[in-house]
Specification:
7 strands, Umud Fragment, subunit A, 7-stranded antiparallel β-sheet, 2 domains
Length: 228
């Protein structure tokens, strides 16, 4: 009964660990890829499979997007952008690396040069400068409320170690220890079974052999002599 409970416990922990690994390992791969890309090309926002995670730092798009949110944008051709789309772009008023996410309120096309007039839904006035098409980073697709702070921590080395590498390492170490313990218990059970069989053989060999039963001589059939 105890072995059955222990087996069920180990099975449950194994399943939970496998699920966590299935979640954490892809996150680790994505984070490492984004970190490497950010170092290789500092002038571009790192993407993974055409999608870009961005951290929202202001409430300029409140209530649609809030500070602390994690948003996912998708790379898209500038010609496909329409009025009403929410886009992320390199701020023409910024230092060349800051990214802003605002709504397109007007599309400008002067002498074949495409640009966008943008505005934050929580702002009273449009952005001062139009956004050139080459400044486009991507189009907003979805947000994860409040996940920006966690995601930013995961982008750091301590965050990767604490939230991803350490849990995976603990699970792997547990599996190794559990497997060794299981193998040891299996070997002990096998030894105990062999010892029991050996004792049974010894007991049978020490037991005196039973004497065969003596055959009872058959009595000769009696003949009746009838006088004539």
């Amino acid at each position: 009964m105890n072995k059955e409970k222990g087996f069920n416990k180990h099975t449950l922990l194994t399943v939970v660990g496998a699920v966590l690994c299935a979640i954490l390992i892809p996150i680790l791969v994505v984070n490492v890829t984004l970190i490497v890309k950010s170092f290789v090309n500092e002038e571009e926002v790192p993407s993974f499979g055409g999608y870009l995670p961005l951290f929202v730092l202001t409430d300029s798009m409140y209530p649609e997007i809030e500070s602390g949110d994690l948003i996912i944008c998708q790379t898209i051709d500038a010609s496909e952008i329409k009025v009403g789309d929410v886009i992320s772009f390199f701020d023409p008023e910024g230092n060349g690396t800051s990214v802003v996410t605002h709504k397109v309120i007007e599309i400008l096309n002067k002498d074949g040069t495409l640009a966008f007039r943008t505005q934050g839904t929580n702002n009273n006035t449009p952005d001062a400068l139009p956004v050139p098409a080459e400044n486009l980073v991507g189009i907003y697709r979805v947000r994860v409320p409040g996940a920006g702070s966690v995601a930013m921590f995961l982008q750091t080395t301590p965050g990767l170690i604490v939230c991803i590498v350490l849990p995976i390492g603990i699970f792997v170490a547990y599996e190794v220890i559990r497997r060794r313990k299981f193998d040891k218990e299996k070997q002990e059970d096998t030894k105990a079974l062999l010892a029991e069989l050996e004792a049974l053989r010894a007991q049978q060999a020490a037991a005196p052999a039973e004497a065969p039963a003596e055959a009872t001589p058959e009595e000769p059939a009696s003949e009746d002599n009838n006088a004539e």
